[in-house]
Design brief:
mainly alpha; 59% helix
């Protein structure tokens, strides 16, 4: 099986696995991350095959939807890639990407680094920014039945990984606890350039949100 065929098989597998996923973490999220990863990788010294597989499988079993278990996704990815006869070194690289891509509160040291992870991580973070990022944020907040906003509950910028995962704070808080921090955490120049525009869009959204919340227009 050629690498192109392996990628096509992976696309089919991910579509099937995420057929009933929450709207912000479904196949279309994967597709956007995949396309952004391919775009960013054009300017980076990376293995495009690893980038493609990492982007396609990065959320194959997000721990948020598996009782916080972070081992499910890597296990599914490893078993699937093994069945495709992907090289063992490539499999371990992809698994390392899946295990290290997430934000986790932003205060944890990353245990693995590679140019391919940097590209996929930027592509994933871009999908948490801008208009799509806002839509995904509120979609997930609704999925978890969280309030839109509560001025009495302030954002917590110093959460541990465990606190971050267990948070039930209003959706607006997530902008300050994660989304607005992502611009300065981008790994690549291409990613940063795209993130800057989306970051500014979100700042405009928040300004309008507070005006409407406070009945100013």
């Amino acid at each position: 099986m050629t690498s192109k065929e392996q990628i096509n098989e992976t696309i089919s597998f991910v579509k099937q696995q995420l057929a009933d996923a929450e709207g912000g973490h479904d196949w279309f999220h994967i597709e956007r991350v995949y396309n952004n990863a391919l775009l960013i990788s054009k300017n980076e010294p990376v293995d495009p095959f690893i980038v493609a597989l990492g982007a396609l499988l990065h959320d194959i079993a997000d721990s948020k939807f598996h009782n916080g278990d972070e081992t499910v996704g890597p296990k599914i990815a490893r078993e699937f890639l093994f069945k495709l006869n992907v090289d063992s070194t490539a499999i371990e690289h992809v698994v390392n990407i899946i295990e290290n891509i997430s934000f986790k509160g932003g205060n944890e040291a990353q245990q693995f680094n590679s140019p391919e992870l940097s590209v996929v991580q930027d592509a994933d973070r871009l999908d948490a920014l801008g208009a799509i990022g806002i839509a995904r944020c509120f979609n997930y907040g609704g999925f978890k039945n969280r309030p839109l906003y509560n001025p009495d509950i302030k954002p917590n910028l110093n959460m541990s990984k465990e606190e971050y995962k267990a948070s039930k704070a209003p959706t607006i808080n997530h902008f300050y606890e994660k989304l607005l921090l992502l611009k300065d955490k981008m790994n690549t120049q291409t990613g940063y350039k795209i993130a800057l525009e989306r970051h500014q869009y979100m700042e405009g959204f928040l300004k309008q949100f507070y005006k409407e919340w406070n009945g100013l227009n």
